[in-house]
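Format notes (please read before filing issues)

Several people have asked whether sequences and structure tokens are stored in separate files. They are not. Every record keeps both together, in the order shown below: the sequence lines, then the token lines. Line labels are part of the format and must not be stripped during preprocessing.
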Amino acid sequence: IVIGGYKIVDASGATIDKVRHDRLSLSGAEAAVELLTKQDDLFVIAWNKLYRRDLFIKNDIWYPAGRIHEDNLTTYKLLSKARGVEIIESNNYLYVKRAGSITNTTKKSVQVQEKINAAKEAIDYFPEGDLREAARYSLFLARIIELNEAIRAKKSGDYKKIISEISILTPSKNKYCPAKGKIYSVLL
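Then the structure lines:
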């Protein structure tokens, strides 16, 4: 898989943001861990990558129809099966951000729930090892986002349930959870 940077532009073509990364070579497993633990769009999104067609066919990996954030549900699988991942120094891809796009019109609560679902599916996809641990950390991150959204929306009835879900993940024992995440989970 080859990953490139990109420019986000508005409908008039004006640049909103540029995303670029230094050249980097990773194994597929290393790239999957990057995606799961950092949730960096460079790794998550589907459209800034070149894939070998066989990667989909031989591994029976397909983007699910009718689901939002389908890249969250698929890209980690492709990365984990790749022999290698090359990040190139470019931002030649233009992503046009439109006001009426599904990403901009989907409720935040639905987006958060899809992140949680994607993380749960990743845990199921990786039965053991580092990738499963990285997927568990991904679920921790999604649950933190869920808690922040509940606080923002003043849904205090949800706090206890979400905190309980976070504690089940035992982030303090996860090697991918940084000190800040461990402190946050203890404070909860």
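For reference, the curators noted about this record: The radius of gyration is 17 Å. The CA atoms of residues 17 and 118 lie 26 Å apart.
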